[in-house]
Design a protein that fits this description.
Blueprint (H helix, E strand, L loop, with lengths): L4 H6 L2 E5 L3 E14 L19 H14 L14 E8 L5 E15 L6
Antiparallel strand pairs: 1-2, 2-4, 3-4
């Protein structure tokens, strides 16, 4: 539903619940994309896992901000941690709708689960 800016305005944060704690993220970008052929020389959001240097980060950040369908006003910098959520979309073959958010903090911490 992040294609709708009104939905984003009411859901600016994503909270990931792990066994140990909550991790809080703020949405940086939301955009349509697709899974491309190997030979296509375009930005492939799904190939990004970690920026090892400023140049890699700048390329990732520039592309997600350019693709975003609205400006969230959230900025990021080299060293930030991100989560990328992707779901099928039907605007093109192998289409995807993508939400990228950066980690901004932690919430509740949970006691370890006994097994």
């Amino acid at each position: 539903q992040y294609e709708d800016k009104d939905f984003y305005e009411e859901h600016k944060q994503i909270i990931l619940h792990t066994e140990e704690k909550e991790i809080i993220y703020e949405v940086v970008a939301a955009f349509r994309s697709q899974v491309y052929r190997k030979k296509d020389t375009v930005f492939k959001f799904y190939k990004f896992f970690q920026a090892d240097n400023q140049a890699q980060f700048d390329d990732f950040y520039k592309n997600i901000k350019k693709l975003s369908i609205y400006d969230t006003g959230v900025t990021a910098e080299f060293g930030d941690n991100f989560i990328t959520l992707s779901t099928c979309a039907y605007h093109v073959e192998n289409g995807r709708f993508v939400v990228v958010a950066k980690e901004v903090g932690t919430g509740n911490t949970y006691l370890p689960i006994e097994r």
